[in-house]
Amino acid sequence: MASGDLNFYNDFISYTDAMLPGVRLPQINIEEKYYKKLGIPVESDNFTFLKSLCYASLINKSSDYTNRLEMELDIFKELDFVDYVLLNWDILNFCHENSIPTGPGRGSAAGSLVLFVVGVTKVDPIKYGLFFERFVSRSRAKKIIKDGITYLDGSLLPDVDNDISYDRRAEVIKYIENKHVGKTSKILTLNTLSSKLCIKECGKIVGSFSETEVNEVSDFIPKQFGRVFDLEEAYKAEDRFRAWVDINKHVYEIACKLQGINKNTGVHPSGIAISYYDIEEVCPVQKTSEGNLVSGYDMNYVAELMVKFDVLGLRTLTVVSEVCKRINLDITKIDLDDPNLYLNFADLRTPQGLFQIEAETNFKVCRKVKPKNLEQLSAVIAIARPGALDFADDYASYAYTGDFKVIHDFFKEELSYTGGIPLYQEQLMKMAVRLGFTLDESEQLRRIVGKKKVSEMPAWQGKIRQKVTEQNLDPAIGDVLWKVAEDSANYSFNKSHSISYSILAAWTAYLKFNHPQEFFLALLKLSKYEPDSHLEINKISKELIQFDIELLSPDLAKSDFDFSIEGKDIRFGLNSIKGVSEKSLEALKSFRESTTPNKFDIFIAAKQASINIGLLSSLIQAGTLSSYTNKRSRLVLEAQAFNLLTDKEKRFVYNIAPKYDYDVLTIMSECAIKTNMLDEKGKPFMGDKRKETFKKKYQEYKKIYDQNKNHEKFANWVFEYKLLGYTPSTRLKDILDQNESGFTDTLEFYSVFKGETVKVVGVIDDVYKGKTKKANATFYRFQLKDEVGSISCMFLDGGKNARLSEYLESGLKIPDKENIVIFVGKKGDDVLWVDKIGIMDNHICMKLSDIE
Asked: Which end of the chain has less neighbouring CB within 10 Å, N or C?
């Protein structure tokens, strides 16, 4: 071996020898007070502490619970997972002691009785039939002992995810960083080039296609069970994609080469790496733009060297906490077995804020199933996913009638409570146990089939047949079990997770329907953290009507910074008005508290608060100065006219204002025809040349006024919608019905007979351009929303009628997102087939440039 080769070899051996063989769990430092509280010596080892903690917290001491507890504790000790459990206890205990709301549980961790009794989860696994083996399995654990130190295989560590109140998550992270100083960091993520992105970018760069064209092609790529097909799979599975590729092979080949390449880096939204050693000794680190440390490895490598601890900020927990504080309730004390809790699911129409139910698909499943207890609510959460959705109708029928069929009577007990559907992974495990396997073995089966470990599957299929033969059973039983194992890999759900989340869903349902004002107030306060806060406000405002609660418009004289309760209603918060800065609000607030303002005071204060005339005009038109007048367009013109005055002119006008009832337009009208309006020095307060300058600028604003006053209510509606996200003054349908009757709102639409002509008005929420499968003809699909809901609308050529073609040939614009439109068309199966389109945005002016 050459000397250079030898040096390289020695360096390599030195490098590999320095690498950690696995995860060394972080050191656990427990405060002395906890030992004293448990009555055990401070010198006690961590296992003794954990066991004492468990028995001190165990309420039900029946053999079912004590035997399960001992079994779990023994496995934790055997696998050296004790410190991992205590790491979770320490962090969750900090939350409990500092009144930081935490969730009931998440994932397979809810299957552990130990985690339940020490307060990491709030789900009793025995009551709900959850398995510890789904969380921890001897067969999955592996430890490595090197130099007398125990390391664990990070990929086989149990995984505990923790939901924390959204607004207090930072406190928990800070606690972890302070408890493990210099041993924590955020975790790097690597984002790769997806099949859709590759075909889009290559289509544009290599094939010179337009954005619209490549979007249409990427839409051909199928998606199944929540996973987008890669390019090769899409080519085999989708005729339209294959036809395009056959014409554009060069684009496709380059896209295939780029697919899966790392695109950019990011930071894991919830993961924190916790190391036994100083973090930089274990992996390279870097800083984010905010100055936080982030690992140089992604989460897969981090998991092999350190503990990856997930702290997920959940807005629902903040909502629950806010409501419970207001009504002085401990939510964990409500009876989840009370049938009355589920009565509102019988005909649910208002899903907003209901955890896991408010999403469109989940809401539809809930409407079908009409859950009457926690088990059925859990099933809703499990079914509302790709694959499992196929069972929605069957489960709904079972929930309604109680009747069901099982695939084989041998497994009737395991499948009866889900209507014969193997909905949960735990059911597959129980079926395997019924055949003679242990729970630990059944978890192996679930993982091998679920992870599609092809090389290990034949051996397990053989084991199943052997069990059937040993017990002299019908061979069909083994075939049934194997088919369930294979099929359920695409749809079965972790019951530990769905039960945990159904508890949170039940909590939100209890609060919403028993304390709606407090519940909606909490939702509105949290709306500022949503990606589209005004969309969230809009959704909430629609539901408030159903609860006889009004969302009162913002008022500079009455509103608090945030949403607030006012009588039986809720007042809009100033800090949720689009475009108004926190600094401006502070200036306005201090001004409001120091005086009782007139209109001119407000105009002056707004300028001092750095609110420009454009924003002030919008605020007035949106109703924030309704205390002063109901003629918003005229008040806007007053503010604009006052803003055109010099500071000296403003002082003069302010002094004579009481005589003219603080009407700047009347004052300026007098000024235009009189020459005796003299300042304190006896001179005309505005000379002829200055009058001409003022008049010229004023006339531009007057054009806005003339346009908007002719559509006063419509203008008010538009400004409210743009700035507030909802429209407190009146409904758009009602405004237009004064001029032309016959408008149908989106709720009424669903009760109209199929084939009837319908006229609707609303805001375009989404636009999609596509091609029909059969004729490959262009179509547009619009989602139209109004104050009470939304509907789907289709615009295309049909039969002998070339509606879309004629519309485009006439040079008319296709409505875009946020356009206000009138659609006239025929009612179909819950869709409107559009015949005519009218875009209404040009009816009002929001700024000088709109006059053009």
From this structure: C
Residue 426's DSSP bridge partners are: none
Are 420 and 414 in contact, with CB atoms under 8 Å apart?
A: no
Q: At what angle do helices 712-724 and 688-709 cross, to 10 degrees?
A: 90
Paired strand residues for 790: 785
pTM here? 0.84
pLDDT tens digits, 438-473: 999 998 888 888 777 767 788 888 999 999 999 999
**Element housing 571 (H / E):** strand 569-571
Q: How far apart are CA 376 and CA 366, in angstroms?
A: 9
Distance CA(799)–CA(803), nearest Å, equals: 10
pLDDT at residue 10 is higher than 60: no
The yes-or-no verdict on residue 106 having pLDDT over 80 is: yes
CB neighbour list of residue 455: distance below 8 Å, 6 or more residues apart: none
Predicted local confidence at residue 599, as pLDDT: 83
Question: What burial letters (b/e) apply to 421-457, b meaning 16+ CB within 10 Å?
Answer: bbbbbbbbbbbbbebebebbbbbbbbbbbbeeeeeeb
Q: β-strand 831-839 against 293-298: which pairing, if any?
A: unpaired
DSSP 454-472: GGGHHHHHHHHHHHHHHTT
By percentage, how much of the chain surpasses pLDDT 90?
54
Over the stretch 242-251, which tens digit does the pLDDT of each residue have?
A: 989 999 999 9
- Partnered with residue 723 across adjacent β-strands are none
| Torsions phi, psi for 629 (to 5 deg) | -165, 160
Statement: residue 684 has pLDDT above 90: no
3-state helix, strand, coil in the chain (%, to 5): 55, 15, 30
Rg (CA), the chain: 33
Predicted confidence at residue 537, as pLDDT, reads 92
> In this structure, are residues 724 and 572 in contact, taking their beta carbons and an 8 Å threshold?
yes
Q: What is the largest CA-CA distance in the chain?
A: 117
Coil vs helix vs strand at 393:
helix
Residue 537 to residue 542: CA distance in whole angstroms: 9
Residue 60: CB atoms within 10 A of its CB come to 12
Residue 582 backbone phi and psi in degrees, to 5: -60, -40
> What gap in Å lies between CA 797 and CA 777, rounded to an integer?
8
pLDDT value for 595 = 65
In 3D, which of 404, 409, 339, 308 has the Cα closest to residue 87? 308
Enumerate helices (H) and strands (E) in the chain, giving the number of each.
37, 18
Predicted confidence (pLDDT) at residue 129 exceeds the cutoff of 90: yes
Highest mean pLDDT among 17-26, 66-75, 572-581, 658-667: 66-75
